[in-house]
């Protein structure tokens, strides 16, 4: 097997091309827009498929250097924070608590599904956790952290099952969020969002009014948020609390965004606002494109029948729980539908997939400001803490 590593700059350039492919496909095919299929999914998955062909047919393993990917996520969340006002945060307090509680219930159900299917296949029950909240809600980082512990417990192959489950979940999360939201909007004939500036990106068929200074001003403010975000992250780390770096950038963005009226004595002008939305949209699109192009699909071949069974049930659970529970308790309105599109990303993929699903829906139907505050906070903070405690409980009870 010949191993080929693509350097960071080239990987970044390939990601730009792939995002162009996705955006062009979305503009050309109305079906993709109708079901709010995220643009990065198209190019990213195409690249992953080509890499898989090279692996299976030409005996070449291609790996991309994706170190710039995490920086793009910081730009994105700083932009989310800058667009959040305190009124929206206050109004989102109760829904935030409700969504967090529903996410906690879902984590438990997700693990029961994983354990149940593993038991039915005659596998160690704990192996099902690797197709539960460890790999799906927890992501690759949580999977890598728990795999050695499972090995010490005599459960071999946990890492492979976890990474494969995360790969399938990431793809499923990107594909179900938009269709679920559009089904709810159509079924209940919901009044869609306003034509205000979106939190991320620009609505389809809307002409951007950007100029040099607007983009440069937005870029400067985002960089300032990230610089202070690094500082806040170090302060938080000193307390012993471990949070993703993007949470610090989100918090700083919220603070700067709400204090700018007192410091600058004015709001962002339209060009700066659209520049902010454009940079955030590109950053998110590039992040998810790079995440998908880095998938190694051949990792799915081990325990294929088990993976197909458990992940089908996990996807069905996500859709059913979202449509009948999340949407209802979030208020059965357009904001609830947008939050529902993000819930698939929370439960099957990652924070990025949750937000890119919501972005695709709002670009088609209009702004949903509250959703873009509630979901990132649940993804980036509360759900990680809850997941860690629930995983420890299950491992202690079963192991």
UniProtKB/TrEMBL annotation:
Its main location: membrane. The chain crosses the membrane at residues 6-25, 37-58, 64-84, 96-121, 127-149, 161-185, 212-231, 243-263, 275-298, 305-330, 336-360, 372-395. It holds the Pfam family Glt_symporter. InterPro entries: GltS (IPR004445). It is a multi-pass membrane protein. Keywords: Amino-acid transport, Cell inner membrane, Cell membrane, Ion transport, Membrane, Sodium, Sodium transport, Symport, Transmembrane, Transmembrane helix, Transport. Coiled coil: none annotated. It is found in: Cell inner membrane. NCBIfam families: gltS. Belongs to the glutamate:Na(+) symporter (ESS) (TC 2.A.27) family. Catalyzes the sodium-dependent transport of glutamate. HAMAP family: GltS. This is Sodium/glutamate symporter. The gene is gltS_2.
């Amino acid at each position: 097997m010949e191993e080929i590593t693509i350097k960071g700059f080239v990987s970044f350039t390939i990601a730009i091309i792939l995002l162009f492919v996705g955006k062009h496909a979305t503009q050309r095919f109305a079906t993709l827009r109708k079901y709010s299929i995220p643009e990065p999914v198209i190019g990213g998955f195409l690249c992953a498929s080509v890499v898989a062909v090279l692996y299976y047919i030409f005996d070449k393993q291609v790996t991309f250097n994706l170190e710039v990917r995490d920086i793009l996520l910081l730009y994105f969340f700083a932009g989310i924070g800058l667009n959040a006002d305190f009124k929206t945060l206050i109004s989102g307090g109760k829904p935030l608590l409700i969504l967090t509680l529903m996410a906690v219930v879902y984590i438990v159900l997700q693990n029961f599904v994983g354990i149940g299917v593993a038991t039915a296949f005659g596998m160690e029950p704990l192996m099902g956790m690797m197709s539960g909240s460890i790999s799906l809600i927890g992501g690759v980082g949580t999977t890598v952290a728990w795999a050695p512990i499972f090995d010490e417990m005599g459960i071999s192959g946990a890492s492979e099952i976890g990474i494969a489950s995360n790969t399938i979940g990431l793809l499923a999360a990107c594909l179900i969020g938009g269709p679920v939201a559009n089904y709810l909007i159509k079924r209940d004939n919901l009044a869609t969002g306003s034509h205000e500036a979106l939190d991320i990106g620009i609505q389809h068929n809307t002409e951007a009014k950007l100029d040099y200074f607007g983009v440069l001003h937005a870029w400067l403010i985002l960089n300032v948020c990230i610089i202070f975000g690094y500082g806040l992250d170090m302060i938080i780390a000193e307390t012993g609390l471990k949070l993703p770096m993007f949470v610090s950038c989100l918090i700083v963005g919220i603070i700067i965004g709400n204090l700018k009226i007192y410091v600058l004595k004015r709001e962002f002008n339209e060009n700066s606002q659209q520049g902010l939305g454009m940079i955030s949209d590109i950053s998110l699109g590039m992040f998810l494109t790079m995440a998908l192009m880095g998938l190694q699909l051949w990792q799915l071949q081990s325990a294929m029948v088990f993976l197909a069974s458990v992940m089908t049930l996990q996807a069905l659970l996500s859709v059913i729980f979202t449509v009948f529970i999340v949407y209802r308790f979030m208020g059965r309105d357009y904001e609830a539908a947008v939050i529902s599109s993000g819930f698939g990303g929370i439960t099957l993929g990652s924070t990025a997939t949750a937000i890119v699903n919501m972005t695709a829906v709002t670009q088609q139907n209009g702004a949903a400001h509250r959703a873009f505050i509630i979901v990132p906070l649940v993804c980036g903070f509360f759900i990680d803490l809850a997941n860690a405690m629930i995983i420890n409980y299950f491992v202690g009870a079963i192991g």
